[in-house]
Amino acid sequence: MPLTFAHDNSDTFADAIKQKIAEFNWQHWEVSERLPLGLKLENEQGVLLAGLSARTFGNWLMIDNLWVSDALRGQRVGSQLLDEAEKTAKERGCIYAVLDTLNFQAKPFYEARGYQLQWTQEQYPKTGCKYFMTKTLSSVQTNI
């Protein structure tokens, strides 16, 4: 009997599939706590000037987004955001960090802060590329 697949490009459907995968994964992972990590800098009027969104999960800090307004770029705001996120992640027990950045974004910025290129996704989305980078936040400690 042939199957008929329906198209559904809605956010609701995408979230439902994401939830189904998460339910499956939670049955197999040894870690059940994924914590959000958000940092922001606002002016006196509450206008967002810089921010970082990430999450910690087991040994990993997973950085989703780091943004600094044009007016503050070059003033070490991004470095301070990253330092604070890494500090918080270490306090939560993280040993590693992972992120991705596009070819026109911040690869040199992350490299200067100890992130190492692990993999490049070429031709993304057509002629550019996406860099996947990691960093060891702290050494694994053993009881000897």
From TrEMBL:
SUPFAM superfamilies: Acyl-CoA N-acyltransferases (Nat). Residues 1-138 form the N-acetyltransferase domain. The keyword Aminoacyl-tRNA synthetase does not apply. The keyword Acyltransferase applies. One of its GO terms (molecular function) is acyltransferase activity, transferring groups other than amino-acyl groups. This is GCN5 family acetyltransferase. Keywords: Acyltransferase, Transferase. It holds the Pfam family Acetyltransf_1.
